[in-house]
Each structure stands twice: as structure tokens, then as C-alpha cells.
Amino acid sequence: MTDLAWIDTTLAAARPRALGALLRYFRNLDTAEEAFQEACLRALRSWPDKGPPRDPVAWLILVGRNSGIDAVRRGARLEALPDEDLISDTGDAESDMADRLDGSHYRDDILRLMFICCHPDLPATQQIALALRIVSGLSVQQIARAFLVGDSAMEQRITRAKARVARAGVAFETPGVAERAERLSRVTTMIYLVFNEGYSQSDPKRDACAFADEAIRLARLLLGIFPSEPEIMGLLALMLLQLSRRAARFDAEGQIVLLEDQDRSRWNREAINEALALIEKAIRHRQPGPYQIQAAIAALHARAIRAEDTDWTQIELLYRTLEHVQPSPVVTLNRAVAVAKRSGPAEALEMVEQLVGALDGYFYFHGLRGNLLMQLGRNHEARTAFGRAIALAQSPAEAAHIRLQLDRLKADAETSLG
Amino acid sequence: MLYAILCYANEETVFAWSKDEEEAVMARLVTVQEPYARAGKLGPVGRLMPTTTATTVRKGKDEALVIDGPFAETKEALLGFYTIDCDTLEEAVAFCKQLSAVNPGSSSYEIRPFYVFRPGDLAT
Asked: Transmembrane ranges (chain B) (predicted)?
């Protein structure tokens, strides 16, 4: 790797810590981002000659802080004077050293930086865009390409979201235990949103696919600063397990390959092993939560060498636990899949029929219902259900998958006639 | 003389590598290892999983304490290492607790799952 590539990677990796600390000093996101930007430019000028500093994050904070102070002072001639404590808060190099040694600051700095991206008024896509821009440091162009919108449209969207965040105000005092737990929970949800935006892409060449890796990086960062939070372990494990199947999820034409039909030799064993190690750590805490339970379900799939080895009884039990912790008709629908595998389609269909009120507009509901009816030989009803599913499909891959099942029905009908 | 070589790096940077960068680095490392492996000089080479998978067993007042995360003290030095094949994390923790109980000099044992990069072929 060339020096410049190494510097780029180091700057990207240092961003959340350094920017988080600068945000704490300046209490203004724009000033903090400009200061970080300036520090990066100076790093690109000075590191190739002088060599990289021993602690790049501390270097960037110190340089960013000094350049930010200069900028604030220059601006002060034109604008109102900054707060007294903003100036006095800028201290000397000694306190920087102290900060550097104090890991607990970093912890809340990074959490705060992630947390401001999860404002409840922001729709999911804006939370994702904001997190990728602010925390991960992706360019507006990169994000725009991933969301298939123009650069200026994305620029506007991010600017509006930032203004919304600024109006809401950011809590800079060190959060209490309850507040920190609340922030963590919102941040883990946001990270999973980022992941799903990437993971749901069927085209491996789409830029958004990289979001899934970025979400894993953010979760590792978060777990690094909160090492004893079993739900973060669960979230990271869940994402690693889902992503471990990336190479096997779609065929050459971009069609969905169902879990049971996937070539399991193409699953990423390194990711699976890391996830299993994390789940084992999480279980020791005996505080099950939705991410841990979902990760445990995904782990049972990962452990089955062949689809027919899957422990559906255990999976059904875990979905039952999940229903208890986080009741939702979608979870029940998933439990019905396990019931169908364990006890046959009739019992599962009975469960599914009770969900019609809640899930009538949901693609997977009609897809599963059609499949169960087909297994029971109720082909006419199955066809109607598949028709509903196709109408609700969100992607060509989803629609194509249902068409495949309709074709199977048609073939069956022809065989029985012939 | 047998030498243990312990690799230190900035984890966040290494995990920010792209797949291509990662593969290029690994290929270069293998090239360096190759002549030593051919001469039968190279023992097992492992790649540790991220520190987020680490668990630390620390000497407590009565029984050893189990703590999430890597060993973080800088005053203590790394004095030894084991590799062991356990079915569960629980089993590895139990092993470390036994070590801790019989070794008055021990302070902490960090448990890190790892991938075998190369099984190695030392005679002794």
C-alpha cells in the first residue's frame, strides 16, 4: 500500500473519534467538520514527509482544534463574539494530552456524533444519509449515487437534515445512565437501518452495497467503546451472519436464492465464526434482547451444513421468545415459517390466516400464504395469493421469485391434466 | 531458540481496509513467510479476530473475574501465550480460571478467538 492510501485509510478510521471530540469543543457541527477537514489537509501535507504520528487521532484533534479556533476568531470580527467558555474551553496542549488518555470522553463523543444523526423527526433515509456523511465521512456524491439521486438533491437533503438537527440542539453534558442507554438504543437502530439499506440491494454493483460493510464498521466501533453491551454484540453478530451469505443470496441473473437453496460453501466462514464468538460472549450476560435473539436464529442457520440439518424446533422457540420481547405480526409470520418446517403447512397456515388484518399489504405475507396453500394442494387459492404478492413486490427480484412459484403451479396443473 | 512474534497495529485502520487492500497485504505476508515455512522453521501463524470478540479473565479477590473486551492495562507485560481448542467460550474461561488460581504471578488472561493462517510445522 502506498503512503497516501495508508493516510486515507487512517483519516477515515480516525474520523468518528476526532470529529466527535471536535464537536464537543466547538459545540457546532459545521465548525467541527471544517476543523477536521483542515486537520486532514494538514495531515496529507505533513505525514508523507515527517512520517505518521504515533497517535493519529490525538494529532488530528489537536491540529483541528487549533485551526478551528483560528477560524472562530476570524469569523468573530464579522459575527457576534463566541461564548466566553468556548474560548476558555480551547485550553492548551497539556489538556489535550489528558483528554487523549481519558477514554471515557471518546466514548460519549462518538456516541453523541452518532446520536445526532438519529433525530426522531428525520425519516429513515435521512438518518442513513446523515450518518454516512457525518460519522463515516462519505462524500455527498457517494451517498447520492447509492440512493440513485442527483448530487444537488442529496446535498439539499443533507443540509436540511443538518439544520433540523441543529434546531433540536445537542446535549453536550455527559449523559446519565438512562440517557446513555436511550442513545445507545437509538444508535443501534440507526446502524441497522444503514445495514439494511445496503443489504437489501440485489445488484452487487450498486454503490449502496458498501453501506452494509460501513454499518459493521460502525457497530465494531460502538462495541469497542461499550464492550459489555450484549445487544451491540447481538447486532454486530446479526449483521455479520446476514452478510456472510452475501455471495450466495443472488444468482448470476440477480434472482433471489432462498436460504434453503443457497450454496452454503459460498458463505463467509470467517464472518460466521466471528459472529458465533460474539453470540457466546453476549449469552454470558443473560440479558436477551431482540438483536441477540435474531442473531441466535441466524446462527442456527449458519451452523447447519445442509438446509435439511436446520434445527427448526430451536428456531421456532427463539421466534417465540422474540414475539415475547418484541411482539409484531412480522415476527409471528417468521415463526409460522419455522412451524411449517417443523409441523407441516396446515398448522402454519392456521397461524398465518390470523395475521391477514395486520399484514394484508405485506409482500411476504402473501408469498408465504401462497406457498403454504400450494403445499396443501389448494392451488387455486395459492395462485390468488401469489398474484397479490406480485402486486406488492418491492423489487424485480421479489416479483421474479413469486413468478417462479406460479410457474411451478402451472407445471403441476399441466402434469395432472396430462 | 523459539521466538514468538506478536503483531500490533491500529485496529480501526486495518478493519477499514478494502477487500483488495486486505488481499494484497495478505499475499505479501505469505511471500515473506514462504521460505521459512519451506525450511520447516515456521510454527503456527494465526490471525486474531477483532478485539470486540475478546474476553479477559482477571485475578479477583477470591475467584477470577470475567470481563468483556481486551486486556487494556499498559503497566503489565505480555509474558506468555497458549493456543487451545475449546468447544465453547465457557470452556476457555474455565481453563483460564484454573490457570489464574494456581499462578500467583498471573494477573490477566485475554481470550481471543483466532483463525489459523498457517498450521505450521515445528518439530518441537
From this structure: none
Q: Is B3 helix (H, G, I), strand (E, B) or coil?
A: coil
Q: How many CB pairs under 8 A join A and B?
A: 61
Quick one: average pLDDT of B42-65? 91
Domain that holds residue B16: 9-43
Q: Are residues B63 and B36 in the same domain?
A: no
Asked if residue B81 and residue B34 are part of one domain, the reply reads no
Residue from A106, A272, A280 to probe the interface with B (highest B Cβ count within 10 Å) = A280
Cα–Cα distance list, A239 to A125, A138, A192, A207, A290 (Å): 19, 20, 8, 18, 13
Cβ contacts of residue A95 below 8 Å, gap of 6+? none
Q: What is the pLDDT of residues A153-187, one digit of tens each?
A: 999 999 999 988 888 877 777 788 888 888 899 99
Domain count, chain A: 2
Can you name the residues that pair with B115 across neighbouring β-strands?
Answer: B47
B23 inside domain: yes
Confidence of residue A95 (pLDDT cuts 50, 70, 90): very low
Number of domains composing chain B: 2
ipTM: 0.87
* B54/B107 same-domain check: yes
Burial of A10 (0-12, 13-18, 19+ CB in 10 A): buried
* Domain termination residue (choose one: A84, A101, A118): A101
What burial class does residue B21 get, using C-beta atoms within 10 Å of its C-beta: 0-12 exposed, 13-18 middle, 19+ buried?
middle
Instruction: Among A185, A207, A226, give the residue marking a domain's end.
Output: A226
Q: Please tell me if residue A273 touches chain B, with a CB cutoff of 8 Å.
A: yes
Q: Which domain holds residue A122?
A: 104-226
List CB contacts (< 8 A) between A212 and chain B: none
**Cα–Cα distance list, A142 to A79, A206, A214 (Å):** 34, 11, 13
Q: What is the pTM of this model?
A: 0.87
